[in-house]
Amino acid sequence: MNKPVDAAGDPIVARVVHKSAIVEVAGAAPVFKLMLNLTPGDRVFEAGSDVGFLPPGARLGQARHILRQYTVESVGRVPFEETIDITIYVREAAPEDSTSVGRVLCDSRQGDTIELFGPFPYPFYPPMGSRSNMVMIGAGCGMVPFRWLAHKVHGRRLDWMGKVLMLEGAETGLEHLYINDPTGDRDQFFDQVTYRAFEALKTRYSAIALDREESTVANMDALWRLMGQGSVYVYLAGYRNVADSLDRAMSDHLRLADRWLDAKKALVRDGHWLEYLYD
Ligand SMILES: Cc1cc2nc3c(=O)[nH]c(=O)nc-3n(C[C@H](O)[C@H](O)[C@H](O)COP(=O)(O)OP(=O)(O)OC[C@H]3O[C@@H](n4cnc5c(N)ncnc54)[C@H](O)[C@@H]3O)c2cc1C
After folding, report:
1. How far is the CA of 161 from the centre of ligand 1 (A)?
2. Is the CB of 69 under 6 A from ligand 1?
3. Which atom of ligand 1 is the closest one to the Cα of 53?
4. What angle do CA 221, 227, 233 make, to 5 degrees?
5. What is the mean pLDDT of each run of 10 residues along the chain (279 residues)?
6. Is the CB–ligand 1 distance for residue 253 below 6 Å?
7. What homologous superfamily does CATH list for 5-120?
8. Which CATH number fits domain 133-278: 3.40.50.2300, 3.40.50.80, 3.30.1300.10, 3.40.390.30?
9. pTM for this model (two decimals)
């Protein structure tokens, strides 16, 4: 699913034309709206496509996939110019993350320039119909990569009939059951539209882990159970080393490495395992 790094193309220099906080929730990092002006040439930027940024000090080719991805919120053509304005939403990184892309973007000011790669197609597509089960796993990056996926499902205006399991965590991606809770999950709050989109998925949520005390083991059980129930799509995004830990943790949990890897292979073969990993 990952784009090879040499497919990233040349960077485009974008200029920050507007920056404002769109979400400020007490106790959580704010989310900024950034409008970037750029000359697209023959590249086609659309809402829902992704753009990538290199972490400070990194270079293309140093890892399999180093670009940090951000989903384009909207695109506007600038009248009488060959340029466009694209809007992205960025969660502020912790102050100590001086090498993070999130930090650089949130510290940028009007008039600053920044190199951007892409556009890239959004890596996830929803299941056909509304009866499949879905598992979303944020491996060290929270649920934000699935924001647009949730929007796509929500945009169909169907009641989701399948079960939806949302997990995230910094070690294996399985430590925390995400329930879009305004208190417990407020550090992941993005905007109202996203909140409603995740909420709509949650209404049919019926994985068992909710009514038990949360633990990684309970989440692993819920994941394995769901993977054995009819049509299921697994979406995985985040850091490659966290995804590798997930494989190890599930193999250990099931006591047989092959059991996990074979189940995963079958989903990959059927186009039901979609992942986007970076280093
Ligand atoms: C398809 C897609 C779309 C996305 N869209 C958006 C969007 O619209 N807006 C948005 O804000 N984000 C979006 N993201 C998420 C964003 O790309 C990630 O949060 C990215 O990691 C930020 O990079 P960074 O350089 O700021 O963070 P980094 O500096 O890489 O890390 C930030 C924090 O993550 C943790 N971390 C770093 N490395 C690791 C590791 N190896 N293992 C575990 N934890 C680690 C650390 O706690 C660190 O402080 C999207 C991601 C994907 C895949």
Report:
1. 31
2. yes
3. 25
4. 130
5. 58 96 80 96 95 91 86 94 96 80 94 96 92 95 95 87 93 94 85 90 61 82 92 97 97 92 96 96
6. no
7. Translation factors (2.40.30.10)
8. 3.40.50.80
9. 0.92
